[in-house]
Design brief:
single chain, about 550 residues, alpha/beta, Urease, subunit C, domain 1, Diaminopimelate Epimerase, Chain A, domain 1, 9-stranded mixed sheet, disordered N terminus
Length: about 550
C-alpha cells in the first residue's frame, strides 16, 4: 500500500510539473492578451488574458499569469483592450431557413404594399419560370392601413413563378394565384384544425394561409435537394460566425441533422448545433435509444418541439380573452393541445428526451405549464429542463411558475421591440403586464435562454441584448422603453445569450462561460457594451469569433 501511495504521489508531482513545463514551454495553441475578458461565470470574474490548448480554455488571468503559456508556436491575439465574451448561443433559431432566407427576397422592412410588390417583382425577374419564391419575412404591420396582402396584389408581378412567402412570425404566409392553382385550392377547400384560410366576402381564398392551413400549399412545394440544403447550411453557419454566434438550438432541424453532419465531415461547420425534431417523432427517437443531448460538442440531438398555438401578429396566439381588434376570436390552439399532447410529453419525457413547446398566448402558456406539472408528478422529478419557447404573454400569476416548476423561458428580445409597435391594439393593459416579462421572470427564479427566432428576426444577438436592455420599439415611439419595468441589465441579457442558453441545452458545464476547462468559444467585440450608451449596443460589431479554439471569423 505504501508503495502504491508513493507511485500515486510521484505521478501527481509529474503531472503538476508537466503542466508547469507545458506553460513554460509555450504549450498554448492560442493566447488572448490585453483584453477586457468578462468570463460571465457565477462570480462575474474579469480577466485580461487567457490560454487555449486544443478545444479548451486552460488558463484565465492577468497578462503576467498567461505569459508563461506563450511559446514559439503560440498564436497571440492582442485584443487591444476590447471586450471579450463567451460565444453567443442562440436558443431558438430555424437555421436552415436562415440560410435559405439569405438567398431569397427580403421583405422584412418593406414599408408599403407598393414597395412589397416592387421587391417581389424585381426578385422574380431574375428567376427561371416555374421556380418557387419562398421566404420573404414580410410584415403588414409596417403598412398604413395594416391590411393583409392578397394574391391579387402580387399576381401581376409573378405570372410565371409560384409564390408562398412567410409573414416574419412564420405563422401565416401569402400564396399567389398560381401557387393556389397548383395546390388545387379554391373556395371548396375546408379549413383544418389549428389553421385558417383567410377568405373574401364570397368565400374565395385571398391567398393568406394561417398556421396548419399552410399544409395545402406546402405539400406541392418541391423538396430541396441535399446539395441545396448544404448550400443553405453553409450560408447560415458563415453568417452566424460573423455575428459571434458559436452555438444554435435549431427548432426545426428534423431530418436535416444529416446535412449538418456532412458539413461537419467536410470541416466547414462553424456553429455548434443542437437539433430539435417535432414532438410527434418521440417514438422514433425513443426506439433508437437516443436520449436528450445525444452526440458530441459540435452536433447533438434529442430535443422535441411541439406547438400550442400561433402568433400575436397573425392573431393565432391562444388567449383566455378575445383580441381587442378581433373580438370574436381568442386565437387558435393546435389540434393536439387538449387531446394527445400531454400524453406525448409524458411519453417523450419518460424516454429521456427533452420537450420544448411553443406557446405565445396566455392560455397556451398556462396550459403547457399545467401539462409540464402533470408530467413531473407522473414521471417523478429529475433534471429534465422543460422549456417553453417564446413565453411571450403570461398571466401575472403564471410568471412565478417558471421558477417554481424549473421551466426554462426561451425568449427572443427583438420580438418585444417589434411587437411593441402594435401589441396594444390587440391586448388590454392587464394582459400587457405579463408581456415579455424578462425582469419578473428573473426576479421569481426563472432561467432566461435568449435567441432570435431567425429568420423571423435578425440573427444578431447584439440586437437582442439592445432590445432586452432598452425595450425601445423599432418605430421610435417608446424612447424610454415599452413596458420599461421589464427591462433587464446588460449583464443579465448577455447571460441569457450565453450561460442561460447553454443551460437550456444541458451544456452549462461545457460552454457559456470563459472558465478553465470550458470549450474555447470566444468573441471579441468592437465596443464595451457594458459601459457604452445602451442605445448604441446594437451598433457594436464582432471583430473576431473563435470556436473550438480556432478562428472562425475575423472582421476585415
Amino acid at each position: 500500500m505504501k508503495k502504491l501511495a508513493l507511485i500515486i504521489t510521484l505521478a501527481a508531482m509529474c503531472l503538476n510539473f508537466s503542466s508547469v513545463a507545458f506553460a513554460q514551454n509555450g504549450a498554448a495553441d492560442l493566447v488572448v492578451i490585453n483584453a477586457n475578458i468578462r468570463t460571465m461565470d457565477a462570480k462575474r470574474t474579469v480577466a485580461s488574458s487567457m490560454a487555449i490548448i486544443g478545444r479548451k480554455i486552460r488558463a484565465v488571468g492577468s497578462d503576467a499569469d498567461i505569459k508563461p503559456w506563450i511559446g514559439p508556436k503560440t498564436r497571440v491575439i492582442d485584443a487591444k483592450g476590447k471586450l471579450v465574451l463567451p460565444g453567443f448561443n442562440d436558443a431558438h433559431v430555424h437555421f436552415m431557413e436562415t440560410g435559405n432566407q439569405l438567398a431569397s427576397v427580403d421583405l422584412r422592412d418593406a414599408k408599403t404594399p407598393q414597395e412589397f410588390v416592387a421587391r417581389i417583382k424585381a426578385f422574380a425577374a431574375k428567376l427561371p419560370k416555374g421556380r418557387w419564391i419562398l421566404g420573404g419575412q414580410w410584415d403588414h404591420e409596417n403598412w398604413t392601413p395594416n391590411n393583409l396582402p392578397t394574391a391579387g396584389l402580387i399576381d401581376a408581378a409573378t405570372p410565371d413563378n409560384p409564390v408562398f412567402i412567410n409573414r416574419l412570425d412564420g405563422h401565416m404566409a401569402l400564396a399567389n394565384s398560381l401557387a393556389m392553382r397548383l395546390a388545387g385550392v379554391d373556395k371548396t377547400v375546408k379549413d383544418v384544425a389549428g389553421g385558417e384560410i383567410v377568405r373574401d366576402a364570397a368565400g374565395n381564398p385571398t391567398g393568406i394561409f394561417k398556421d396548419a392551413a399552410s399544409y395545402y400549399i406546402d405539400k406541392v412545394i418541391p423538396a430541396a435537394s441535399f446539395e441545396q440544403k448544404l448550400e443553405a447550411a453553409q450560408a447560415a453557419t458563415d453568417h452566424a460566425a460573423s455575428l459571434g454566434v458559436t452555438s444554435v438550438q435549431d427548432m426545426s432541424a428534423g431530418a436535416d441533422i444529416g446535412v449538418y453532419q456532412e458539413l461537419l465531415r467536410q470541416g466547414k461547420l462553424k456553429t455548434r448545433v443542437y437539433g430539435c425534431s417535432p414532438l410527434a417523432d418521440y417514438e422514433r427517437w425513443s426506439n433508437t435509444g437516443v436520449r436528450r443531448a445525444f452526440g458530441d460538442a459540435m452536433l447533438r440531438a434529442g430535443c422535441l418541439k411541439g406547438y400550442a398555438d400561433g402568433s400575436l401578429g397573425s392573431t393565432t396566439a391562444w388567449f383566455f380573452a378575445p383580441y381587442l381588434d378581433a373580438p370574436n376570436s381568442t386565437g387558435l390552439s393546435m389540434a393536439d393541445v387538449l387531446t394527445t399532447m400531454r400524453q406525448d410529453i409524458e411519453n417523450a419525457d419518460k424516454a429521456g428526451l427533452q420537450v420544448r413547446i411553443h406557446a405565445i398566448g396566455d392560455r397556451a402558456n398556462a396550459t403547457i405549464l399545467d401539462h409540464f406539472l402533470a408530467v413531473d408528478k407522473t414521471n417523478g422529478t429529475w433534471d429534465r429542463r422543460f422549456t417553453i419557447e417564446h413565453a411571450q404573454h403570461l398571466r401575472v400569476e403564471d410568471i412565478k411558475r417558471f421558477g417554481s416548476q424549473k421551466v426554462v423561458a426561451s425568449m427572443q428580445p427583438v420580438h418585444a421591440i417589434d411587437d411593441g409597435r402594435w401589441a396594444w391594439k390587440r391586448l388590454d393593459a392587464p394582459r400587457l403586464q405579463g408581456t415579455y416579462a424578462f425582469r419578473t421572470l428573473l426576479d421569481t427564479g426563472g432561467v432566461l435562454a435568449f435567441g432570435s427566432d431567425s429568420p423571423v428576426a435578425p440573427l444578431n444577438p447584439l440586437f437582442g441584448i439592445y432590445a432586452a436592455v432598452t425595450r425601445r420599439t423599432t418605430d421610435g415611439k417608446n424612447p424610454n422603453g415599452w413596458l420599461p419595468e421589464q427591462k433587464i441589465t446588460v449583464d443579465e441579457a448577455v447571460r441569457g445569450f450565453t450561460w442561460g442558453s447553454a443551460y437550456a441545452e444541458f451544456q452549462d458545464g461545457e460552454k457559456g462561460t470563459l472558465e478553465v476547462g470550458m470549450l474555447a468559444d470566444i468573441i471579441i467585440l468592437s465596443d464595451d457594451i457594458f459601459t457604452i450608451d445602451p442605445n448604441k449596443i446594437g451598433d457594436a460589431r464582432v471583430l473576431t469569433t473563435i470556436i473550438d479554439g480556432k478562428i472562425a471569423f475575423e472582421a476585415k
